[in-house]
Amino acid sequence: MRSSAGSVWVSKMKYIDSHAHIFSSEYNEDFEEMLARTEERGVERIMIVTTEAEEARRAIAFAKQDPYRFQVAYGIHPEDVTKASKERLQEMEEIVSDPGISAVGEIGLDYYWDKEHHEEQKALFIRQIQIAQKVNKPILVHSREAIQDTYDIMKAYRTRGIMHCFPGSAEMGREFVKLGYYIALGGAVTFKNARHAPEVCAGIDINYLLTETDCPYMSPVPLRGKRNEPANIPCITQKLAEIRGISEEEMAEIIFNNYARFLGETDA
Ligand SMILES: [Zn+2]
Question: What are φ and ψ of residue 174, in 5° steps?
Answer without folding.
Answer: -65, -35
